[in-house]
Amino acid sequence: NPDIINHYSIRNDKHNDRLFTDKISYVTVELPKLKKGLSELSTPSDYMFYALRNIHSMKAMPEKFKGSGLEKLFELCRFAAMSAEEQRQYIAEWMAEMDQISREATAFGHGKAEGKAEGKAEEKLANARELRRLGVSNEIISKATGLSQEIISSF
Length: 155
Description:
The protein is mainly α. Helix content is 54%, strand content 6%. A two-stranded antiparallel ribbon has the order 1-2. Helix 3 (84-133) runs antiparallel to helix 4. The N and C termini lie far apart (83 Å). The model has no long low-confidence stretch (mean pLDDT 82).
């Protein structure tokens, strides 16, 4: 809409209307002229301009904005509106949450490693049982699997 969005190019000087460069330009948006209501938003630009024009008076992000890509903007504005003490508390809670996620990821990694080790041990035992069933000597089975002859003899 040309009444709201203005495109400008950089000119050489006030008295000479020659174009300085076609590589640089700037855009202004006259937010007070944006009159679309929440129900009229349809394009990403509509959502962004609506948010910029109205965010100061919003208590929370409207449901319609979910998935618009502007969630972080609302989170940052909410953070900026907090007192210094509230910001410290928010950061402390966020860090505690990230620490918990890190602990869970580490535990999951350890659990996977333990599971793999258990799987390998079970595979060695199954291989040793099969070799024993086929009549292979305990000494050769021990060398092949790394299991002790005492464990092999217990099958």
